[in-house]
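User: I would dearly like some help making sense of a protein record. I have put the entry right below:
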Amino acid sequence: MQRKIKLQGEEIDYNLRKNRRTKRLRLTIYCDGSLAVSAPRRLSLGIIENYILQKSDWVLSRLKIFKRKTESGIFGKTSASDYPRLKKTALELAQKKVVEFNRYYNLSYCRISIRNQKTRWGSCSRKGNLNYNYKIALLPERLADYIIVHELCHLKEFNHSRRFWDLVAQTMPDYKQRRKEIKNI
């Protein structure tokens, strides 16, 4: 259900989802700048809105970041019709780059998938499946390479420990700079 709330003088739209299986309040801000609130079914609107007000600094700062990204970055340049069009290109890129980088790492994986993810560039499942956002096809090659290597390294280190980052650095010594660039898109 669509609702509005005033945060620090600014009116914000949010989508309220109540579910009997939800155990606690959760705020989610998507890359398109929309705010979603998940809440237990029996929780009153007053408690929900009070919680949002308590988190207003965080909500407004995240919305500002995503608004900037939408106006200037990859997320603002895409539309619903881009996914089917770019999926094949992204899959070819991911397959080529995984093979290229895996010559060094020699890790086993099951399959590579391209998804229309709202908040992630990629993911790696415990089963060894590598998943990438179709928007990697829109990135500069050096940043797409970082995302490919990042997920590939999760096949060996399923965390973000020092060992994981050392593994990434073996083929990408400037990973910190690339990671910073990705966060600013």
About this structure: The mean pLDDT is 89. Strands lie at 2-7, 10-19, 26-29, 35-40, 112-115, 122-124, 130-133. Residues 2-72 form one domain.
